[in-house]
Amino acid sequence: MTDVHRRTAAVVTLSDAGSRGEREDTSGDLAADILTQAGFQVVARHILPDERGQITALLRKLCDESQVRLVVTTGGTGLGPRDVTPEATLDVIDRALPGMAEAMRMESLKKTPFAMTSRQVAGARGSTLLVNLPGSPKAVKECLDVILPVLPHTLDILAGHTRHESR
């Protein structure tokens, strides 16, 4: 598997208003820009309503059929009655990566106490990493800045490249 293949990504925005075209997808645009600047090839972009079944189906398709290596979602991680992104992600992943989600929340907590109410999830389905980000552009940047340094290693491990080289 080539490094380029390991660096494919999809960005999925979860927003009722965005899916109806009533709101610009600034968070998804920013996530895609940051990932592109970090060397990822963003091969898919989607905007879905906050519907658990639709989210779950798309996440499974991206992991199993499209075989992207990284799926980043934005939105739907709060406590609103329609916020179901974490539940949909948990329906899909095989293994949770709680440390990644905790690290993002810890960084956000330095800036706002409301970070305590963010329920983002990170985990793996097969060799694909899924990461939930909050819906605000500011939080997208903060959270991606936290996890970007570990993404190459994480994707290598998920791809089965488990040999540790001394540097």
TrEMBL record:
Role according to the record: May be involved in the biosynthesis of molybdopterin.
Ranges where the record places region Disordered: 1-25
InterPro entries assigned: MoaB/Mog-like_dom_sf, MoaB/Mog_dom, MoCF_biosynth_CS, MPT_Adenylyltrnsfr/MoaC-Rel
Annotated protein name in UniProt: Molybdenum cofactor synthesis domain-containing protein
Xref: SUPFAM superfamilies: Molybdenum cofactor biosynthesis proteins (SSF53218)
This protein's record includes keyword Nucleus: no
Pathway where this protein functions: Cofactor biosynthesis; molybdopterin biosynthesis
Annotated keywords: Molybdenum cofactor biosynthesis
Domain MoaB/Mog: 10-154
CDD domains registered for this protein in UniProt: MogA_MoaB
